Fold:
Amino acid sequence: MKSENIVLTKTFEFAVRIVNLYKFLCSEHKEYVISKQLLRAGTSIGVPVKTLERWLKQLKDQNKIEFKGAPKTGGYYSIQN
Structure:
């Protein structure tokens, strides 16, 4: 069973809330400038998360880091050669 990635889930939920807020600001308050900036900033949060996951996978594949501890409280540690 594959464990759910809580960070990706939360960033997606956050992005959905930002999109809904953008729609509300545009339709109800006719606010376009601030809402557009909010939309751009609020939906780009997932990019650093995916970049971090890609780098972690590369480092694990190269046997440079390993995960120690429980799934919720553990962390990555460098492997000493």
Remarks:
- The helical segments are 6-28, 33-43, 46-61.
- The longest strand covers residues 65-68.
- The first helix runs from residue 6 to 28.
- The domain at 6-78 is CATH 1.20.1440.60 (de novo design (two linked rop proteins)).
